[in-house]
Amino acid sequence: MHIVLISTPIGFLGSGKGGGVELTLNSLVDGLLAKGHKVDVVAPNNSKLFEDSKKAKLHIVEGEEQKSWQHQDYYSSVVIPDNSLLSKMVEKAIYIGKEADIILNFSYDWLSIWMTLNINIPIAHIISMGSESFVISNLISNVYSKYPNNFAFHSKIQASDYHFIENPIVIGNGFKLSDYVFQECKDGPLGWVGRVAPEKGLEDAAYVAKSLGEKLNVWGIVQDESYALKIDKMFSKGILEWKGFLETDKLQKELGTCRALLNTPKWNEAYGNVVVEALACGVPVVAYKRGGPSEIIEHGKTGYLAEPDNKESLLSYLKIINKIERKNCREWVENNASTNIFASKVVSWLNTVIKEYQS
Length: 359
Ligand code: UDP
Description:
It contains 13 helices and 13 strands. By secondary structure, the protein is α/β, with parallel strands linked by helices.
């Protein structure tokens, strides 16, 4: 199969601004290449693919980024700036896509989804968020009524945000196991990983660390400066240990030393890459029973699922975190979320879409 991927128009690959999509795209490329498929990636200027994904052809496009939907009002209109990066990426993907079997879109945005209705080349979409925009959700609904197989989701609970979808195609996610080293560190510190932005609920994790009289290691890009400042001011010095945004190899080395990862999203997290990355290092996760993490974590086996927004519930589970066998965590990833498993699901889904266009 020859597949053209459209990356996120929010940030370049490697910037961290694109969130989990950046790692997901790289993992998928790696899995597709290993299966012998031909892959082109259309991505913003400065993007870099991971070492193992470099056999894919990278097409760089320059232009003005889109604004992330989760940081706009739900009822905002679509804004496409002059010199739009998104439109240039779509244009480029269609140009290359004429010679390919399918275009696979990772951008959660209007133009790329709308194009499905207007060209003969199959465009499939990996929807990376829950419903974060009225306009986009309605557009998905319109396109879905004509092309129900062109959409896939990371988790069932994410797809449930789109009420019109009855039997969602759920593809999970994939992680290159050899990039994550298992560590047996039952006495390590507490960790939190994510974009520092309101939907990620860092303050709840910091509260738990404070209650335990411990520091919380925080890895990730500060996407919302004023939110980060507010959280920093809320807690006394020594609670929040800002570690910055690290590349996967460095991140997993440090994350693997933690005795637990706290995951405290306030939104319907589509999947939660950081949860699986922690598990891959043997780190159990205490998360709110909400969004993707609630389908990933096996309560009592690979971590605990706390009552959403209940910090005391989080705290109570952290106190018993050492009951979790760290090897269970790694095993879950090996059995459920390798790049091979992920790429197999995506390939079988894309084959269905391609066949429909041929009939
Ligand atoms: N991440 C990273 N370095 C860091 C912190 C985070 O590479 O220091 C990456 C992490 O590997 C994950 C992504 O940021 O792939 C966050 O994805 P997630 O699905 O957890 O949340 P999203 O940002 O998509 O909402």
